[in-house]
Amino acid sequence: MPLQTSAPTPAADDHAATRHPPRSPSRRDWMAWAGTTAVAPWLPGCGGSNNPGPQLPATMAWGRQEIRQAMQASRARAASIALLQGERLVWQEAFGVLDDSTRTPATPDTRFNVGSVSKVLAALAVMVLVDRQLVELDAPVLHYLPQFAMLSPGYRDITVRHLLNHASGLPGTHTHNLFSFAPQPGYAAELEAALADVHLKHAPGAMAVYCNDGFTLVERIVLAVTGQAYPAFVQSAILNPLGMARSGYTLQPLPPGSFAHGYIGDARQGQEFVMGYATSGLCTTPGDMMKLAALLMRGGELDGQRIVSKAAVTEMGSTQHQDMRLSHLTPDWHAGLGWDSTQHPGLDAAGFVAWQKSGNTMFYASDFYVLPQAGLALLITGSAPGFKPGPVAEGILLRALHEIGQLRMLPPKVSAAFPAQATISSSAVDALLGIYGCSARPIKASSPDSQQVDLSIWSAKAQGWESLCTGLRLCSDGWWWSDAQPRTQYRWEQVEGRRYLLARETATAGHYGVATTVAQQMQRAPAPLPPQWSARLGSTWLLANEAPDSIPLAMGVGAASLQELPDLPGYLLWDDRQFLLPLSADRAGMAVQVPHNAGRDLVELVVHTHDKDEWVHAAGWMYRRHD
Fold it and tell me: Domain residue spans in the chain?
C-alpha cells in the first residue's frame, strides 16, 4: 500500500479527462493493484549471484524454484533475494531480466522500489530523533506542526506514535500524483494542507486502521525539527552510516540499466517515482536491506557504530494495539512501529518471533523479515505488483531454520475437517443479514431458510450482486463453514453497537490461518438523500488533476460513479465501493469504521462549482462531472 492541493485549471483538465473512457479501473484497483493478466513464459536462470559458499543448499534450491514460479505467475521480469544468517550474507541472487527488449540480466545490484517496506525506515528515523530528544512518541503532532489542522476537533489528540502505528484516524492515502514517471515534488506538504478540509474517520488511538497518510506526515515532522527534507535526513542519519550505497529515494532518474522495469501489459514502462517517501518511496536492493536488518538484529549498533538505541529498536518491535478498541477483531495483526507484524503468524506457529513488513507499488512487490532471536533476515522483491513474495519468504525462512537445526521439523498443515454443526435460532440468523460496507466493494448477507447464510459481493461490471460464498452454516468452533469454500470461514461479532463480518483463511503455507475483519453491517440511513445529492445519482466523474506523467492515468484510471443502492437507501455509493453519508449539500463523509485493511483509504467527497460545472474532490484527486 500499502497506500495527496493545488489543481490545474478546468481548461487544462479537459484534455486529460477525455482521454479515459468512463469504464476504467477504480481508485481502489490501482492502489491494491494485482496481476491478473495471462501467465508469462517461464523465466529461466539468474542474472547473478554473490554467495560466499554452498550454505543452506536445500533451502536455496527450494527458494529458487518458488521464486521462478512466482515470477511466472505474475509476469515479473525480474526478482531478487538476500538472506542474512548471523554475521553472514549467505544468499544473494537475482533472477530474470531488466526488460524484455534488451534481455539484460538482473543482478544483485539491480534496484527495486520496495513500497511500504519504507515504513520501517520511517519509524527508525523517528526513533533516531527520539534518541536525540527532538521528538517524543506520545507528544501531539501539533507540538511539531502548529499549523496542522483538520475539521474534526479530535485532530489535536493525534500523537507521533499514532502516525507510526496506524491509529491516527486520518482517512488513508492522499492519491494526487503519488505515483509518476517523473518527480512531482511537494507531496507531503500538499497532504498536510489537504487534511485541513477533511474529517477524521475515527478518534485518534481508538483503533488501528492501515494508513499511509500518517507516515507522510512524518516527513513534515522531520523537516520541522531538523531543517532537513526527509530524504536528506534519512540519507545522512541512516543510509550513509550503514553503507547502504544503493538505497535512496526517487528524487531524480536512475542510470539506465540500474533498475528493473515495470510493465503495463506487454509495454515496458519508464522509471517509477513514488512521491510518498516515508510511506512507500525507498528504492533499494535486498543486499542493502540486509545492512538495515543487521542493525535491527543487533539492537541498533553495527560495526561498532551506534545508529539508534536498543530501547528504540525494542519499541519498534513491540505490539502496539493490545489496548485499542476492536483489537480483538484482528487477533492476528500485531503491528509495531513501522512493522506490519511483530509476531508474524506463520513464523509464530513454528515458535519463532519475526518482524515483517510487506510493500507494493504500481510495479513492484516486496516482503521484508527480521527474526531477531533466530538471527535470520530476508528480503524478496519482484518487478510486478502481482508478484507474491510472502509465501516464498515464509517457506525459505522455515526451511532455513530447519536446515541450520533451529527447527526440528516443518510445521504440519492445519486440519481441513469441518467441526460439528451448531444450532442457532432463526432470529439470530436474520439479525446477521443485510448490507456490509468497507473500503472495498460492499457485501450482502442473505438467507434462503434462516439457517444458512449466503454472501454476495457488489459487481461494478454487472451493477448487481455476484456470489461470494454460499451455504455457510454455524459450526461448533464459532465459525460459519461452507462446502463450497472450505479454505475460508466467516464469523460475526457485535461490538459497541456495530456488527462486523470476519473471515478466516488458511494461509498459502498451509500450517496456520489468519483472521481479519472484512466489513461492517450498515444501519438504516438517518434520512433520505438531500435533493442536491439525489440529483447527482447515476453520474460519472472523470479524474482531472493528475500530472501528465501519472502512472494511474497510464493504467487507465480515470472514472468514478456516484449512485444509491436500492438495498441501502440514504447512503451514497462512490466508485462502486465506499458508502458515504451526506453532511451537507456539497459534502459527504465516511460512513464505516473497520479496523486493519478493510477500513483503509476512505474518502470524503467535497463538491465545488466552477463555471456552472460541478467538480468533486476526493483524497487529493479532483473529478469533473462527465454527464
Answer: 10-33+526-625, 426-521
